[in-house]
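Researcher: Here's a chain I'd like modeled. Treat it as a single chain, no partners, no ligands.
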Amino acid sequence: MTVLTTYIILILIGIIDWNSRRIPNKYLLILAGWAACYAAFSSEVNAKHIVINIGIGLALTIPGYIKGIVGGGDVKLMLAIAPLWPPLQLLSVFSIGIFSLLLLMSFTHLASRMSLIKAHYANTTNLPSASFKRGIPLGSAVALGAVFVTAFNFTL
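Model: Modeled as a single isolated chain. Structure tokens:
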């Protein structure tokens, strides 16, 4: 039940971030509260892992925030998910998510160049290819990474 609730919240954040490049604080608070409850009652999570994950989250997002590639919500998202996974699994969630997101963004960019899609959409500025110009939706990447890592762990 804990895993399912976490992924529902992350997928909702991912969809919102993909569409608007914004992550509402109310969803981040829900996720952070859920993660804190999980950490409080889980024997798998300890304070050392949370501190390491906070450092990892900041190291991965602050440079992008300074350059304007990711937003403040993305930084807060990485802090909110710090208690959910051990450090190596958090890095897997992040890296697999970024890779999956870049593949998805590339696919939507290529699909937007196909003549059938261009004929269907008169105004091509609304196509997903514009997503490259709007920055990286890190919330979508984290959601994708969490789903893929969890699916992979369940198959083992």
